Amino acid sequence: MTLAIRSDAFDDGEPIPRRFTGDGDNAIPSLTIDGIPPAAVELAVICHDPDAPGPGGFTHWTVYGLAPTTTTVEDADYREGPNDAGRSGWYAPKPPAGHGAHHYAFTVYALSRSVDGLPSRDEFLRSHVDAMVGQATLVGTYER
Hints:
Distance between the termini: 37 Å
Shape: globular
Radius of gyration: 14 Å
CATH superfamily: PEBP-like
Largest sheet: 6 strands, mixed
CATH topology: Phosphatidylethanolamine-binding Protein
Helix content: under 10%
CATH architecture: Alpha-Beta Complex
């Protein structure tokens, strides 16, 4: 089985419902993970918008410490790292009005070693690229 991430809230490539955005309830969409590689000792999930203005896009959520037996993120124990708003936790999509559709990539990383602390997305990607034994992405869109 291949590593996969999906949501009951939206299908891959489809719009994210308003309740999961900054224009709605700021709710975190449900995420289900399947096909976790046997070599995984930890999972991480990152939501990133590459279409956001500025260099490198905008990271909306960093999640570390998910057990390799996790199937639904909302039912799991995890640590929330920093987002690009300078806080920890979920920062719901709210792109600039008239900016067109933004793509929100929810990526699950299966790791062969644990993540220490609460690194930023960039710090995590630099320090754990060699520990990635699998990754999968679900993309939702939103525009205002």
